[in-house]
Fold this sequence. Notes:
By secondary structure, the protein is of the alpha+beta class. It is 14% helix and 31% strand. The chain has one helix and seven strands. The strands form two sheets. It has a four-stranded antiparallel beta sheet with strand order 1-2-7-6, with no helix packed on it. Strands 3-4-5 form a three-stranded antiparallel beta sheet, with no helix packed on it. Strand 3 and strand 4 form a beta hairpin.
Amino acid sequence: MHDLVRRNRASEMDRIRAGIDQVFADAFFRSWPTGSQEVFPPVDLYATDGSLIAVVNLPGADLQDVEVTATADSLTLSGEVKAQHFEGELLWQERSAGKFYRSFKLPVPIKSDLVEAGYKAGVLRIVMPKVDELKSRTVQIKES
Length: 144
């Protein structure tokens, strides 16, 4: 026969919760130096009357390591942000480095042959002229 032992459920739950909190704190909030990793640059997309404009944060990227590809209905960004190494022991790392690839289906057709891109102060700006809207016209019927 087993003896009944009364347990304090609140203190057990507190102990379990503290253990789980410690696991998450170690996994997500500790600064572990890492090597190259996947980079996911943030992109904003704006629409004006005549074009779509994509603004991409790429601090530390060299232009020769970035490629922009546009089709009539999509925009693709790919490349690499190379890691910079400095003298001394790395204590904290938040800047990302590594290869990236992003592809977007655009909300309206663009003139891919007229797309322009500029890079200044770590920000890539891509201007994509919209395709002129198809306009209806009245067709004159000729007698045959």
